[in-house]
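Morning!

This is the sequence you dropped in the shared folder:
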Amino acid sequence: FRPGLNSNTTMASPFAFDPFAAPAPPASSSGRAASASAAAPTSSSSAAPSSNPFDAFTPGPTPSVANADTNNNFPWQQSARAVMSNGSTVWKNASTLSSKSTPIKSPSSCSLHETTMKRIVPYDGPINTLETNWDPWLFAAASSSPQSLWRNNGNFMTYLIVSGNESCIVPGGVESFLKWNRSNGRGGGQQGRGVEDSLSQFDSSLSLNDGSVEDFDQANSNNVIDTATNTTATKRAPSSGGGLGFLKSGLKKAQGAIERSVTTMAIRADGGKNPDWVCASLHYRADQNGSGVNATMASGMGVQKLPGDVCLSRTEWIRLPSGSSGIDNGGGLAFTLPLSVPDFGFMEAAASGGEVGGGGVRLTVRLYIRSGAALLNMVKREYCVGECSVQYADVLRMASGVGKQQQTQQQSSINYSSSVNLPLTGGMLSEPISYSTGASSPPAAIKITATPRIKFNQPCTFGWSLTDPISTPPVTPLSWLKMFQLPLDQAYAFPILNHHQLLNAHQINQQRSSSNATLLMNETAVESTLTLPIATAVSRLLSSAAMQSQQIASMTAARTFRRESLRSYVIPPDDEFKGNAIASAAMKDGCADVAIGVVALVLIGEAGMGAAGGNGGAELGLDAFPTVRANLSFQRHDSIFEEPLANSFSLPLLDEVSGSSYINNPAAGLGPKEAVTTRFCPRILTGISNNDEDAALLPGIMGTKPNGKYVGNVRLEVLCGSYSNGTAQGSEITTLEGIVELEPHLEATQQQQGKIPVLCPAIDTNNGRRVGTFLLLVRVRTGTNSQTQIRDSVPDAKGGLISVVGLDTLAEEMGLFPSLDCSINSDATNATASGIRQRQVATMGSFITPGFLKQQAEQRTGDAAMLSERYDKYFHSVLSGVSPDVTTEDESDVPLFKRRTPRPFRPSNSRPDQLLAGLGFNVHVQAVSLSILQDGNAAIPAAVYHSVTHGAPADHARGFGGIKGTDSGENGARGGLRRLETKRLELAKEVDDNISGLINAVGEFFKMRAHTAAIRQQSGLKPSRHIPPNVQAVSYYRSRITASTQKLHSLTWDVAVRRGNCFSQALGIAVTSYLASLSDGGPGWRFANLWAKHGYLITFEGLLSAVGKELGMIEDASTAVEMLRMVSVVLVSDDSNNNDGSAGSTSRQRIPVPFSPFVKWVYLIYLTPNGSGSKTQYRLDVGLDPSYYQNRVPAPLKGGAAVRFFPVLFQMGVDIRQWGANTGRSVTTQIKDRAKGGNILSESTSKDAEDVETNGEFGVDLINDGDEEDDDDEAGGVPDNEILVQLNLEAIRKLNLYAHAINPAGAQSPLPTYDQSQAQPLPMHPYLVSLGDTIKSSAGKMDHGILDKAGTVVQRLGGGSTVFCKSGKDRTGMSCTFKQAQFTQRFMKKEANATLEDTHVAGEDVFSISTLNRIHGTRVPICEKNAGESKFAFNALQAKFMPPALVPPSITLASLLKKPET
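The structure's back. Tokens below.
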């Protein structure tokens, strides 16, 4: 019950009071609690107050939130954005607000700018907004002493459920009212006009139909109450003369007569086809309350002058004579939307018994009627047909159950409801004789049922979730308000007749069975406490793994730089100084400085040289000697492929005699002349196994060098004619080659500055005979006392990011070097085909260039820094909710939807923000709790439905147009994870195919050289292990492998980062769903045993379209959902004695969960630190309050039980983009075709399109949902019309496996695993037959039935569900309201022995509830949280293409020509 009400107070008949009696004077106590207790109703005169809207009515306007100087700037005429820009306090940070939330001041000293938050928010339209939903609670939460204002655990407002008896149904509707109005002398004059015009203030915005707001009568807009004097201060327009004033008066009378005549004609023309509308509203009237109360009321509203009539709340408009709920209510009127009564407790102390209205706050309930005639649809003039009054103190008594028999059950955690019938005492309905046409009827009366408004579901009650933040502000509430936004809520009431099975099922008090009960549906949307801590835990893991990957890339780049020293240390031939510097650096790095000069080829014998196939020596100025073309290459000891040093240079060809004179060159005195020179820096290998550069010497090389140093060989090659005894024999071409081993010259030239002559035999490769000698000048140097360094080994790549996010590297598993993201595969030592293949590849050197590795190291350094910064900021933000010493950035002046500090709520337009990419955005736990109310009884919890709503778990920040470091146009690496990972497989196959081609080319070369090798062996020469660089097939495949491998590495890294971001978002959403399902009323207690055995079934219901960027989002989401299979959740007790496996975790590893009443921390463990790629597993420990763990956690989930996620994704596009994709053409093109005379759209849609084209903005906003500025049809690629069917088929196979696991139905055991569900399909489970048929027939269709049926099956199987679109606000809002309306209807229609899932409900009944949810519920404020505007980001044209069940009400739509902000 509410504080301030004496729990011991008893009443003979608690509701037998006269609501119109003058209240008794208040008690002498000045405190608010004492005043409320003293304001008990008394029985005296039943006469109505002397001033009412039907007798000498002097109307006043609905109050303006703006400054009093702009009285005509009414908030209901403004959009939510305009209200916000004029100082709406919703967007202000509580740290600033609290300092301004001073005690209530008198009007003379209080200004609007000082009162930054209002305690009373007037009704300004039917759409629920953040201001109306938050301001009263924000005031209390941000107060310097919130506990004094925060009553009943934050539920300090009250609902009045309103219904009317049959006499409240106005016979003849508006036409009857107009007749009554004229018959009572109100047909003309200002007095009569006052009834109509003043009440037209609350017009078009109150309707379920869209329309424009009428301008108000100027006289009414100036009629206000001065709160300082409680006198009417009517502003009069300056008069220019009596004659003119008389003329104006006459014109006004004539206008009124014309309007009434037109109204009557329109009603008669309609012929009753469209019933009239009726609604109820709650008002505060200044003339009914004292001056002190009025002054306090003005201060609570944040205005200086209080209007005479303040509309506080309204129900929905319903048709006469039946209600809108589709439920038999037994006759009369039944309003689904309750009236919301603000917390007037602070005003009770200001009441004075000596004044009119003294002794308490008096409220007025009215009934309004409006014509339903089609011709008057845009006018929406309203007429008050009756009213009654009630004391606020009595409302509190009814809501708190004071006076009921079960006094011992009065607790603040239990909600009560009580009703009272109030006869209408003013207006047409108070005079039944004036309109009655038959036998006497009971007086017109309304029944009001008071019950607390539940904004904060209390812990361990229906509607509460284990992920909800605490409902009571802590000692320092500002940190709470910096972390979370207040919950959003709305209730709906549905009458339940006596015979309904719900009454029997829930054992309603049989003594009251003659009284109808009410089913109260309470809808809430609450931010999750888990999203930020989970994202922090994942970011910590990703940051550590990325740093390890960065270290691996940097060390591998350095390793490859040293190994590929010929490419790394390139010495320029024309800059000796620079060359010496490079050589010096290379020698310090363990390389040799090799200088080679080739002088000539001297043939054996004295035959003429012209016949040898040589060319004249004129090219070199050597007229006396011929030349031949030669090649010079370097043979490495760790690769079978030679590196070119000099290609196709001219080499003098000499005989022995001429060679001697040429070599000595006595005339010049300069020694031998070099035909070509080259200088390079080969790596000196040692063959030591723990030296990472030397791990792969070619077979047979180890141990062949006495000094243990392996430098390599230089090979000379000459093509010339064949010889016999030095004489040319024909024109056949053969190859002469010579090989110089560099190791013997390493020490010989170490002490010399110049080159030394080296003679190398020239061998004919055809017969192995020596035919001459190559003369070279050689110098091989190393650094002084240089020794090859033994460097630290590269960290294990299995702890890097690639493996941590569950990726197999693909390339390294083929044996490719360098091993960037995979440790050496042990299979290479096996005699299997795979092992042999890996050993073959290992002899082929490096397939990645040092330049690429350097670029990869730089990219990984940047990404690792980004992830590290993300973790630091996330963790800092978490700590700000735990420690008062930690503060976050002040965003008090930043609108909510533009804030970027990490918080549990991430606005949807923050998608491009890389810092927030690990947080799921717009995550809310959407809960619907159903309870049964009956007079004088505590509310009986009946059912609860939880769903998590969110934006697509996708990496929007990285985009979908291409991959960093690759040419996306060339390799097609664009889109989301599903497409990118398919591209990875394609690249891996390309690499594999090229490796096969290279192995075959190498084999063919050695096969061709087999004869030569045999001859060399017979001649006693060493066999050749190398392949020349000019073998075309080998060169082709080597270049292809290098290009493909580098693309694969670049793509793999980008995919890894992308997977990490998407996984972080999806995990926070999944854990939120799991803990919500464990909450009271959820499936946890019924299905816990099955969860422990088979996993927690979680279904993601996507509403994205398979085209453009949203196709990329689908692809990201599908992989993120799949990754959840890697995670198992363990609930542990947060005490020092727990044995659940997390006792060894440190405080920094345990991420605290701020402001959660029972969830203390989370700890994410990477179970395979030694790595297993796609087999990676995680364990998430969730630390719970010990008492909650002991008493509220089901036994199967205790003791370290690991519950593994069983994730499933169903996807169906439901908007205009998907319609365009299904029809196979651009949406804009089709609309243009129709506008030009095609036959695609309906006539009305064509008209809309033509209107847009006429305004010059065709195609700009028609397909834009307000989420991205560059969101065009073609962004990100062409439509994929098959992916939806593929995803849904994959999903139903997984769901079928789960259904057979928990409820076998003919499937043979053992069942396949989750990963085998696609390859080993099972017979369709009976639960899924209808869903399967729908999926099979869904190709090319926009069939929302897939998501509907999938959600029903998951509910039957005890799983949890989430709903998402791109932003999680618009399409998601349509879907979740449909689901909760369907749940409510099923509950109300369910037979005694039936299940909810088997209960059939009519689509129109579901739609009627979902329409109310969409207008009055939590989803429009969620749009405002994300985009700053209380509208769904659809326009009228887009709505025409949506499935009927998801069509939004027109009043909630954005303008056709207006693009909402993101």
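Headline: The first helix runs from residue 32 to 38.

More detail when I'm at my desk.
O.
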